[in-house]
Design goal:
With 180 residues, the chain is α/β, with parallel strands linked by helices. It has a single domain, classed as 3-Layer(aba) Sandwich (Rossmann fold), CATH 3.40.50. It is 33% helix and 24% strand. It is built from 6 helices and 9 strands. Strands 5-4-3-2-6-1-7-8-9 form a 9-stranded mixed beta sheet, with helices on both faces. α1 packs parallel to α2. The longest helix is centred in the last third of the chain and has 15 residues. It is globular, with a radius of gyration of 16 Å. The two termini are 17 Å apart. The relative contact order is 0.22.
């Protein structure tokens, strides 16, 4: 994303071990295959400064999947590395404007308003659907009630090709660049 160029943003949210990082890796790889440059921003939501291997492993996986730039944010530290009192998601996105990026995938930051994918592991995660804004689709490990299917585009976890294609199409709708 050059200065002033539009960049698509998609959030991947869910609780720990719901598959967020795996989905991010697949999406980053797929857009790379389409000739687009991806970036990732991970929110280190488990507390602490992201300064060890366990807290930065996801952003490293994003980078290995093909992200042009990848970062993790936690307790006032943006692991790119810069130290400030606190970085908002908006400030990190502005920083990313200095890179040539077509799409930014955001892991976490549940309460932000960007278009998002919600990953559901079990019934206890369903409260996310009533508390989060701007849900584009739901990917679930469990079978969901028809009421939920009527409100959102819903995929089962094993329908990987369907939801990856759906999400790529959503990115195409909001991108200034044409996919190859």
């Amino acid at each position: 994303m050059a200065m002033g160029q539009h960049c698509s943003i998609l959030q991947i949210v869910g609780y720990q071990n719901s598959g967020k990082t795996t989905l991010m890796e697949k999406l980053i790889s797929r857009v790379g295959q389409k000739g687009l440059k991806a970036a990732s921003i991970k929110h280190h939501g488990h507390g602490g400064v992201p300064n060890d291997v366990s807290s930065t492993k996801d952003s490293i996986l994003h980078f290995k999947a093909g992200a042009i730039v990848s970062s993790v944010m936690g307790e006032g530290v943006l692991q790119l590395s810069a130290r400030v009192d606190d970085w908002s998601l908006e400030e990190i996105i502005k920083l990313y404007s200095f890179f040539s990026i077509d799409v930014i995938f955001v892991e976490g930051y549940k309460r932000e308003y960007y278009p998002k994918v919600v990953l559901i592991r079990d019934e206890t995660d369903l409260q996310l659907l009533s508390s989060l804004p701007n849900i584009k689709c739901v990917i679930s490990h469990i079978k969901l009630d028809k009421d939920i299917n009527n409100n959102y585009q819903v995929f089962q976890l094993n329908e990987e090709e369907l939801y990856i294609d759906f999400l790529i199409e959503e990115l195409v709708k909001t991108s200034d660049r044409k996919f190859v």
